[in-house]
Amino acid sequence: MDVQRSYEIRTYGCQMNVHDSERLSGLLEGAGYVRAPAGADGDADVVVFNTCAVRENADNKLYGNLGRLAPMKTRRPGMQIAVGGCLAQKDRDTIVTRAPWVDVVFGTHNIGKLPVLLERARVQEEAQVEIAESLEAFPSTLPTRRESAYAAWVSISVGCNNTCTFCIVPALRGKEKDRRPGDILAEIEALVSEGVSEITLLGQNVNAYGSDIGDREAFSKLLRACGKIEGLERVRFTSPHPRDFTDDVIAAMAETPNVMPQLHMPLQSGSDTVLKAMRRSYRQERFLGIISKVRAAIPHAAISTDIIVGFPGETEEDFEQTLHTVREARFANAFTFQYSKRPGTPAATMDGQIPKEVVQARYERLVAVQEEISWDENKKQVGRTLDVMVAEGEGRKDGATHRLSGRAPDNRLVHFTKPDQEVRPGDVVTVEITYAAPHHLLAEGPAGAVRRTRAGDAWQKRQDAPAAKPAGVMLGLPQIGVPAPLPAAAAPACGLG
């Protein structure tokens, strides 16, 4: 490519899509493209939509955005538009039919083909639609442009073997495929050598890891192995499934110092009847039993969840069982969703679809209950001294309030008084919590100790060389960083758990 062309990627959906977009960035930069400035809003030579098929009205939002780009493409000769991700895997040729100005459509299994497809569309002057039916290569073998210098996603598996009736992800992402433990640990060690101090293990059903390689304790072994990597300070994972959450995993969490006291455990419903209709292979008693065991082993653990309100057939009694479970579990926070039909899922054609106004009313009741619990649980943090890893972009009001923001070990968001000395994202500051709100904590007194870290050094190095082009690292060893904020700041829908 003689002249560098700019690109913009718009990402929708779960953490898996966010991480896939990092790979798409790495692929495009490896092919000679440069990232368009922030806020380009379509003013780029190539605009890529990495889509989600789970979020409500995902298709309408996509086609609306594509429609807004059509006149811009007419005015900009050579501009290309690509659509990938779960909606592309599902809709395929429909996208080009409804939006004939789209140049490339690619699926979840062949993201590595994007640069080739763009070039082929340019040369042949016609749309390229290529959807692989199964995974061509594990995505972590692709070059990656990580968004953060101090924290990183690390995929340990792709796909899902569950058959939840509300979820289309297994049909779009395929059956679970696990990476070899050695490849995962090699990637983590490479990230740490570049300055990363926090990693999040990522999978559609992360704690089912091992089912593809025939080792039922593979996930707990992986957590313990992470504990032996020098320089790795924080380990998280998302999202597990209650069915596969075994005692050896709880023990590994409790006994591995760098595995953080945080757990995201999707509930979906507290009603046994609804759970059966959802084809979730646990019941309320089993779920609360897991929560109880985790709290016994890790008393300060912050537990979050996903809940769907208004699933077909849900009665008032069923909903009350969800409220009961929420009160018993006392989640630090919950990502709550109103059920809406997803074409292609069994639930979309079930009898007993709930009227919108009933779903809305139940949703508001659930949110009110959970808000009260979140606030109560956060108030228990007042007076505690916490080590906060400074984050980038977490505090929208930090400039006006002269504060910084970061994440506690349990992933709670903390806003704290800016220390006198320089502090960089990735550094760790010790603070005392003085006030609690439902969704964040405040440390209003003077900051305590400031620990400058290799992660902070990595962030500073990136700031000092903003134009430096990252080199792709192959064979399962991507580059540093991951998008901050980490998982708790983004709803982990899209079949994660």
Word description of this protein:
The strands form five sheets. The protein has a seven-stranded mixed β-sheet with strand order 19-20-17-16-15-18-21. α12 links the parallel β13 and β14. It starts with 5 loop residues before the first strand and ends in a 33-residue tail after the last helix. It has 497 residues and is of the alpha/beta class. The chain contains 15 helices and 21 strands. α8 (218-226) packs parallel to α9 (247-255) and α12 (316-329) packs parallel to α13 (356-379). Residues 468-495 have low confidence and may be disordered. GO terms for molecular function: 4 iron, 4 sulfur cluster binding; metal ion binding; tRNA-2-methylthio-N(6)-dimethylallyladenosine(37) synthase activity. Belongs to the methylthiotransferase family. MiaB subfamily. Monomer.
Outline:
This protein has 497 residues and is of the alpha/beta class. It has helices at 15-30, 58-75, 86-91, 93-98, 114-124, 169-173, 181-193, 218-226, 247-255, 272-278, 284-297, 316-329, 356-379, 398-401, 454-464, and strands at residues 6-11, 34-35, 46-51, 80-85, 104-106, 128-130, 151-155, 157-158, 177-178, 198-202, 234-238, 262-264, 302-309, 333-338, 385-390, 403-407, 413-417, 428-432, 435-436, 441-443, 450-451.
Shape: globular
The value of Rg in angstroms is 22 Å
Q: Find the count of extended strands (DSSP E, 2+ residues).
A: 21
The tally of helices reads 15
Main sheet: strands, sense, barrel: 7 strands, mixed
What class do helices, strands and sheet pairing give?
alpha/beta
Which assembly state applies to the chains in this document?
A: single chain
Strand content: 15-25%
The side-by-side strand order for the widest beta sheet comes to 19-20-17-16-15-18-21
Overall pLDDT confidence: 87
Span of the ends, CA to CA: 42 Å
In helices, the fraction of residues equals 25-40%
Q: Give start-end ranges of low-pLDDT stretches.
A: 468-495
Domain Radical SAM core: 146-377
Subcellular location: Cytoplasm
Keywords: 4Fe-4S, Cytoplasm, Iron, Iron-sulfur, Metal-binding, S-adenosyl-L-methionine, Transferase, tRNA processing
Subunit structure: Monomer.
